Inverse folding.
């Protein structure tokens, strides 16, 4: 299941060069913080819930406190 990432979502890199396996943390953080409904749906289908939760618990995770609280509730 391939996702075409938006340049506005990944403004600091070329979205065509993003590897969903190698860049899982980066993708999950960016989409949970700034993604639209389709992108969030893709993350939830592509990555196991355990991987998403693990990313959210990492030190210096790039999620706002509000986003972290929201996703923590939704991923219970």
């Amino acid at each position: 299941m391939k996702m075409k990432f938006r340049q506005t979502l990944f403004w600091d890199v070329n979205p065509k060069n993003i590897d969903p396996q190698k860049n899982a943390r980066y993708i999950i953080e960016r989409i949970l913080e700034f993604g639209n409904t389709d992108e969030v749906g893709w993350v939830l289908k592509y990555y196991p819930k355990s991987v998403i939760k693990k990313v959210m618990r990492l030190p210096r995770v790039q999620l706002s406190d509000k986003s972290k609280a929201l996703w923590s509730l939704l991923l219970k």
